Amino acid sequence: MMDKWINNNTISKILALAVAVLLWGMVHLDTGTPSSTLTVSYDNKVIDNVGIQASGLDESKYVLSTMDTDHVKMEVRGQRSVLTSFFRR
């Protein structure tokens, strides 16, 4: 009798749907805190006097008439180790 249930296409679909709903519920309804204790420290770096240059402008379709400024102050946020290695160069 169990062989008939397994070979029945409708029963297989219902079983697959039930497993999918259970998996979805386990992923989306888990309110516990993550078990990872790894903390990543983020840092901000401010770069003054960054030059602005227009690029990727299709000159056959668009015209850049004015730019308000040619230098800006930029703030970059990221992992401290990545920022340190990038700005060391």
Can you walk me through this structure?
This protein has three helices and two strands, in the order ααββα. By secondary structure, the chain is α+β, with helices and mostly antiparallel strands. The chain has a two-stranded antiparallel sheet. The relative contact order is 0.14.
Query: Strand fraction band?
Result: 15-25%
**Molecular shape:** elongated
**Overall pLDDT confidence:** 82
Strand adjacency order, main sheet: 1-2
What proportion of the residues is helical, as a percent range? 25-40%
- Uncertain parts: none
What's the N-to-C terminus distance?
A: 72 Å
The SSE string, one letter per element, is HHEEH
Structural class assignment: alpha+beta
Short descriptors:
3 helices; two-stranded antiparallel sheet; alpha+beta; single chain
Topology (SSEs and partners):
Layout: H1 2-7, H2 9-28, E1 42-51, E2 71-79, H3 80-88
Antiparallel strand pairs: 1-2
Short recap of the structure:
With 89 residues, the protein is an alpha+beta fold.
